[in-house]
Amino acid sequence: MFDRPRELLEVIEENIPAMIQSNEELLDHISHCRIDANESRETYEKMMVGLETLKHQLLEYGTGQIYVDDFIGREIRLRDDYNDYGDSGDFRCSAIILNCSNNTRGGDRRIQRGIWTALQNASLYDEEEKRDEAIIIKVYLPLAGISETFAEVTKLRFLDHPCVAKFLGIHHSDSPIPAFVYMDHLRSLKIYRESTFCNLRVEIPRFLEEVVYGLEYLHSKKLVHMELCQNTITVDFDGNVKLTGGCLPRLASFPMDKESIGVGDFAYLSPDVLRGEIYVACADVYALGLLIFELLLNTRCFDNQRMMTLDLFTSKVDPIGMNDVINKCQEVNMTESTKNLIVWCMDPSADKRPPVQVIAEKMSDFKTEQCAQNLRRSGFQTRRHQAVKRVPSKQAS
User: Fold this and answer.
1) Among 118, 174, 259, 395, which residue has the least CB neighbours within 10 Å?
2) Sign of the Cα pseudo-torsion (8, 13, 18, 23, in order)
3) Are residues 222 and 124 in the same domain?
4) Structure pTM?
């Protein structure tokens, strides 16, 4: 009767080492699981942080790019300066690029161009409401060397300032880079001054004030205007500044034949940008200094150096000496503070120029500047709002 229990005890005794080993292995496994769980928790926490960052990036990208209005060709009609009711049919980026490809400014009069961009007024046609909305289209020219604009569009989508043009959306036609669409018909400050009666004593300080406030806002959004001059500063038909030049800081693109091409409007680029450094906010400040000098003295910067080659100008540029800033400011009885501000902005060293906020604080001084009081009323050089019969283009077919 006692044989069976004895046999069971012997079997149990034989299995005790295996049970102990199994328990030890189980405890080791539990220990590894706890370590893995802790590591997994840390990985999960890092993943959640990464997902939160990604969520914000996707929200910003979606609002700025995915949901940005993408206008179709039939919605856009180019405005004809010769006929206010003209309709040119579907808009194509290539048409503007082609008109600007000869690198001259004597082409289509509707196109306002800078070094790297071209602007053209147009109308946005709403088929449902049967009405037109005034717009202006900005196109990047091939010389700009732009490959994509996603990040730039994202930034532009959120801009909201009275001195910055309202960005409406983009338009894809036959160009790799989309055209940018802004609200309202705009024209360059240069064209406005030449085609409109205005009291320069009042208007010039106002122009400068609005340009500075617009630049200050762009810089606060980590954007720059780039190629800032009277040809690229845009105003509405009432003369209110509406900047369309907001873009991300980048390297400036130059023609390959710098040894043979004239400097032209490249003269408004700061020495550091001409030498190949990135165009950042202080380069806008340099161009702003040139603009203040031009408008208060009713002159043109680097007037005697425009025919120099771009390569030679880059090596010789001396903004204060070439423009004879000190003597010309004294000739018009400019105050010492305004003269010093201009010289400060034109400093060849990028890190020595003032931030635009400092210039904004001195804007009120321009209204009482003696040289501004000596400016005369501008006169018409071209006519406004007069429709004349357009001569058909020889290239039209």
Assistant:
1) 395
2) positive
3) no
4) 0.75
DSSP string, 313-342: HHHH--HHHHTTHHHHHHHTT--HHHHHHH
Long-range contacts of 323-328 (CB under 8 A, 24+ apart): 323/290, 323/293, 325/293, 328/297, 328/299
Domain range spanning residue 100?
70-185
- Assess whether 174 and 85 both reside in one domain: yes
Instruction: Tell me the pLDDT band of 88, cut-offs 50, 70 and 90.
Output: low
Chain segment 192-225, per-residue pLDDT in tens: 988 878 788 889 999 999 999 999 999 999 999 9
Pair of tokens at residue 199: 């009291």
Q: What is the C-alpha to C-alpha distance for residues 51 and 45, in angstroms, rounded to an integer?
A: 10
SS3 (DSSP) at 113: strand
- Number of separate domains in the chain: 2
Question: Using CA atoms, how far apart are residues 292 and 288, in angstroms rounded to an integer?
Answer: 6
Q: How far apart are CA 48 and CA 51, in angstroms?
A: 5
Determine, yes or no, domain membership for 200.
yes
